[in-house]
Design brief:
Elements: E1 2-3, H1 35-40, E2 42-43, H2 45-53, H3 55-58, H4 63-75, E3 77-80, H5 88-99, H6 104-109, E4 121-124, H7 129-135, E5 143-146, H8 157-170, E6 174-178, H9 181-185, H10 189-203, E7 207-211, H11 220-232, E8 237-239, H12 251-268, E9 273-275, H13 283-296, E10 309-311, H14 314-327
Parallel strand pairs: 3-4, 3-10, 4-5, 5-6, 6-7, 7-8, 8-9
Antiparallel strand pairs: 1-2
């Protein structure tokens, strides 16, 4: 399906896990750019499509097991608002939802009232970082800021680096950057590597998620190669999309990126996180992505330290599914506090 250099040449190291849901995973230190590895990569599109076509049908969970998986999905959400009409009030409301994502009565009925379930992070534009940091004070939930001329990434480089530094100074613990798609489309892997290195350096101690904008990269092979280069340059997460493209997170993109993460870990011993974003709206979607992570990368990627959903409307559907599990009835959306 994905063919690269021989695994025999790579040492495998057991993954490290964080001791708390909100404790960051150890950073990806990166490595020198290996152009031969990047250029030799091949992706069998037919095999990828066959594999992902059956992912949601071969595995399913029911009843209390489904409820448990859905609660896990909530903990892996980057609850997001990236609208032009965002206001401090909307962001504060989103942060309150992140700290209490499910009604307490439902959690008690599910036997999960004492688990301290929250979302993995809150994701906002730079202008709302300080508001979100203040609203989440004491919760341990990190703030993620989109940066580098999001969503198109075509701002001057100096401006993009300054935006990253400003968000980190304002309190963002995670930075979601967007790569220059032209570097991928023209095969300028050295330029992409240097760009990603500069972003990582500007982030300082903040974790950096590299948004590939997979729907604009042309081929699955490009997606795989871009994933490798960004990880080599020190990306702590690779992310499918901004959510603003016409094609966003799809399972074929996800499978190819997961295989790249697996290959990179085999080569370096370093575990890199994965974040699908854009178009993930239903509880069924969330379960399918979690199944993909478990089957391709293992249980360590069922934790917010290594897996996140970019989500806005997803949480509402999961809440409705949880209420159905408790009561046997589907509720109206207005029964749940809005995100």
């Amino acid at each position: 399906m994905v063919t690269t250099r021989s695994d025999a040449a790579r040492a495998t190291t057991a993954p490290r896990t964080a001791s708390s849901p909100h404790e960051p995973h150890p950073r990806n230190p990166g490595m020198p750019l290996e152009l031969d590895w990047v250029r030799e990569a091949r992706v069998n599109r037919s095999a990828v499509e066959r594999r992902t076509a059956t992912l949601g049908t071969r595995r399913s969970v029911k009843k209390e097991w489904q409820a448990a998986w859905l609660l896990r999905a909530i903990t892996c959400m980057d609850l997001t608002t990236l609208a032009g009409d965002d206001t401090p009030g909307r962001v504060r409301r989103l942060c309150a939802k992140a700290a209490q994502p499910v009604r307490p009565d439902l959690l008690e009925a599910l036997g999960a009232g004492d688990l301290g379930i929250t979302t993995g992070a809150v994701c906002v534009y730079h202008a709302m970082v300080e508001t979100a940091v203040e609203a989440l004070d004491g919760t341990g939930i990190p703030v993620a800021a989109v940066s580098t001329g999001f969503p198109h990434g075509l701002s001057p480089m100096a401006q993009k680096l300054a935006e990253i530094r400003a968000s980190v100074e304002a309190g963002a613990q995670e930075i979601d950057i967007v790569i220059t798609r032209a570097h991928v489309l023209t095969g300028d892997w050295d330029a992409l590597y240097r760009e990603m290195q500069a972003y990582r350096e500007a982030c300082g101690d903040a974790h950096v998620k590299a948004i590939l904008a997979t729907g604009e990269l042309g081929t699955l092979r490009n997606v795989y190669r871009a994933s490798l280069v960004c990880m080599m340059a020190g990306a702590d997460f690779i992310k499918t999309s901004t959510g603003k493209e016409s094609v966003n997170a799809t399972l074929p993109f996800g499978l190819v990126m997961a295989r790249a993460i697996r290959e990179y870990r085999s080569h370096t011993g370093v575990s890199v996180g994965f974040k699908p974003a854009g178009g993930i709206r239903t509880a069924k979607d969330a379960l399918t992505w979690l199944f993909l992570m478990k089957e391709e990368l293992g249980d360590d990627w069922l934790s917010p330290t290594l897996f996140r959903f970019g989500a806005s409307s997803l949480l509402g559907d999961i809440e409705r599914q949880l209420e159905h599990h408790v009561t046997g009835r589907y509720s109206a959306s207005n029964r749940h506090p809005l995100a």
